[in-house]
Design brief:
InterPro entries: DNA_mismatch_endonuc_vsr, Restrct_endonuc-II-like. GO terms for molecular function: endonuclease activity; hydrolase activity. By secondary structure, the protein is α+β, with helices and mostly antiparallel strands. The protein has three helices and four strands, in the order αβββαβα. Helix content is 43%, strand content 18%. A four-stranded mixed β-sheet has the order 1-2-3-4, with helices on both faces. A hairpin with a 7-residue loop joins strand 1 and strand 2. The longest helix is centred in the middle third of the chain and has 24 residues.
């Protein structure tokens, strides 16, 4: 697992390129205040919008989730912990006044960017 990329994955870079082309500026792998070893994939710090691009395997996508046949108990616990961590991270950010956008790696980058742009625009309008 240590060889798995934590940032700069293909889906993340695709989304970032489209956001940058639209003139939006953001932070990459921005550490979440008040948490250890957690970061936002793409953070719009002024608008307080956190974007996470979740891998289908690691975050148990409802459409594409799969589990290895070997060591099923360990993997079930591991993936359940990942989901629980996502929920607590979302809640932590929302309590701090952030909006959270979660995107699956299989989503079309252009559609994902549309959702992000809408959320950033809403957040800026409210400020």
């Amino acid at each position: 697992m240590s060889k798995q990329r934590r940032r700069d994955t293909r889906p993340e870079i695709s989304v970032r390129k489209l956001l940058h082309a639209l003139g939006l500026r953001y932070r990459v792998a921005w550490p979440i205040p008040g948490t250890k070893r957690r970061s936002v994939d793409i953070a719009f710090t002024r608008a307080k919008v956190a974007v996470f691009i979740d891998g289908c395997f690691w975050h148990s996508c409802p459409e594409h989730a799969s589990r290895p046949a070997a060591n099923d108990t360990w993997w079930s616990e591991k993936l359940a912990k990942n989901i629980a961590r996502d929920v607590t991270t979302n809640e932590h950010l929302r309590q701090a006044g952030w909006r959270v956008v979660r995107i699956w790696e299989h989503e079309d980058p252009a559609e994902a960017v549309d959702r992000i742009v809408e959320e950033v625009a809403r957040a800026r309008a409210e400020r």
